Protein: Transposase-like protein DUF772
Amino acid sequence: MSRKLPNFKPYYQHQLMAFPPTFDELIPQDHPVRIIDQVINSINIDGILDKYYKTGASSYHPLMLLKVLIYGYVSNTYSSRKLALACKPEFDN
Structure:
């Protein structure tokens, strides 16, 4: 019996933008978000993925949500509104 995968909203953190730089180029090499990204990507979440419904509207990928939550803890941002603002890129440098 084939296993149907959960339906997540796509997120592409390595995508090219409409302008020349990529997101990877805009984030400093020593930014804590890079460590969070590496650590969270190394976690095996197959058990969690099995619990997701395979039908219905797509949901945000649990790894992405965990990265945002951990980033909030690291940056002492606990308000969901402040965290949403902190996740918006500031490209006006």
